[in-house]
Every structure is written in C-alpha cells, then in structure tokens.
Amino acid sequence: MADADTAENITARDAALLPVDALLTGLARLDLDDADGISLGQGRQITRAGVADGIVRVYSAGCFAGVAAVRGGVIQARRLVAQPQRRAAAA
Questions:
Q1: Domain containing 74 — which CATH number?
Q2: pTM for the whole thing?
C-alpha cells in the first residue's frame, strides 16, 4: 500500500492532463447534430454546405469525435475516437 496514490496525487495528476483534442486546435471545428454524428461514426459520408475544404476536428453531441476531411461539402471521417454507445429512444 505504500506505493498507492493518494486522492490528492490522483487529483493533481488528472488536473495536469490536457483534453484529447488539445493538439488539434489549429484545425477548424465542425459541430454535428446527433444524426450526422452517428452517420459519420458508422462510416457514411455526410454533406454540409458552406464548410471549407480541408481537415477539420469534428464534435458530436458536444464531445470530440475525431478528424474528418472535407471536399466540396462532402465530409468523410479520417480518424474517430470511440464514443459511448448511444441508445435509440424507446418508441
């Protein structure tokens, strides 16, 4: 038990961690609604008018989802971060 971290050490260590998207702040941010976020996560391309071509950081439901490429308004995932499983609302 002498090697166990104390609650204070764990809190201090966690406070020093940067967000997973910290290195991507130079990329444009693209926020998706739930439906588009799910589609992109399932490997489908989505379209969005008015988005500049290039690589963007993508957020869905307010959470960082990954990186996508945009060309001519077509958005295709490049690298995605695992997301908590979303459950369909009960009908």
A1: 2.30.130.10
A2: 0.77
Residue 14 lies in a domain: no
Q: How many domains does the chain have?
A: 1
Q: Is residue 4 part of a domain?
A: no
Strands across the sheet containing 74-80: 28-32, 54-60, 63-71, 74-80, 46-47
> Distance between CA 58 and CA 42 in Å, rounded?
14
Q: Which of 46, 91, 49, 50 is nearest to 68 (CA)?
A: 46
- For the chain, the residue count is 91
Question: What pLDDT, in 10s, does the model give residues 46-87?
Answer: 999 999 999 999 999 889 999 999 999 999 999 999 877 655
Domain, as residue range, for 55: 19-80
Which residue did the predictor score with more confidence, 39 or 14? Answer: 39
